[in-house]
């Protein structure tokens, strides 16, 4: 089955995010359930964002965060300890399966840092637009008559 990358459409359209998310889910071939692990995306300032992923049962050594170009990938893989093998589990309601969440980042969005607090992985992002890319005002020189420099008759 072919997969389609709709990421360029996210950056060039406004108001169609829900439609593209539905298309992404319909065409995805992820091995894990599409809703695992749950996450939130929050705006914490004018150019600051935070992605919070619920990773209950995972430690810092079980998680990895990778940024490549405009893609943020959060992976989790639970390693089994010898102590956990000796325990007999009567009911397992806390999922500890491996997962991979991929987030498409807009241009000029960079990862500031990450923290694991109370089973929630917080990834802080900031959008830093270079000075050359920011809009600027161009002053209009007014009132003068244009002057002709070095005009020679042909």
Topology, please?
Blueprint: H1 7-12, H2 17-27, E1 39-43, E2 48-54, E3 63-68, E4 71-76, H3 82-86, E5 99-104, E6 109-117, E7 120-127
Antiparallel strand pairs: 1-2, 2-7, 3-4, 4-5, 6-7
Principal-axis shape equals elongated
Please compute the radius of gyration using only Cα atoms: 25 Å
Helix and strand content put the structural class at: alpha+beta
Number of domains: 2
Uncertain segments of ≥5 residues (pLDDT<50)?
Answer: none
Indicate the CATH topology of the largest domain: Immunoglobulin-like
What is the helix content? 10-25%
Named at the architecture level, the CATH assignment of the largest domain is Sandwich
Give the DSSP E fraction (strand runs of 2 or more residues): 25-35%
CATH class of the largest domain: Mainly Beta
Number of strands: 7
Order of helices and strands: HHEEEEHEEE
Distance between the termini: 70 Å
Observed structural traits:
three-stranded antiparallel β-sheet, 14% helix, Immunoglobulin-like, alpha+beta, 7 strands
How would you portray this structure in words?
- The chain is of the alpha+beta class and 154 residues long.
- The chain folds into two domains: 1-30, no CATH class; 33-129, Immunoglobulin-like, CATH 2.60.40.790.
- The chain is built from three helices and seven strands.
- The chain has helices at residues 7-12, 17-27, 82-86, and strands spanning 39-43, 48-54, 63-68, 71-76, 99-104, 109-117, 120-127.
- It has a four-stranded antiparallel beta sheet, with no helix packed on it. A three-stranded antiparallel beta sheet has the order 3-4-5, with no helix packed on it.
- A hairpin with a 2-residue loop joins strand 3 and strand 4 (71-76).
- The mean pLDDT is 79.
């Amino acid at each position: 089955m072919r997969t389609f990358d709709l990421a360029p459409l996210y950056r060039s359209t406004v108001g169609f995010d829900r439609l593209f998310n539905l298309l992404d889910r319909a065409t995805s071939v992820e091995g894990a359930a599409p809703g695992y692990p749950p996450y939130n995306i929050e705006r914490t300032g004018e150019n600051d964002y935070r992605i919070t992923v619920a990773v209950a049962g995972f430690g810092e050594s079980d998680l990895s965060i990778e940024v490549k170009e405009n893609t943020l990938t959060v992976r989790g893989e639970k390693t089994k300890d010898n102590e956990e093998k000796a325990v007999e589990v009567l009911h397992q309601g806390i999922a500890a399966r491996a997962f991979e969440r991929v987030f498409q980042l807009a241009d000029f969005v960079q990862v500031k840092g990450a923290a694991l607090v109370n089973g929630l992985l917080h990834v802080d992002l900031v959008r830093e637009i270079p000075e050359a890319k920011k809009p600027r005002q161009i002053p209009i020189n007014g009132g003068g008559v244009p002057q002709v420099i070095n005009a020679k008759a042909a």
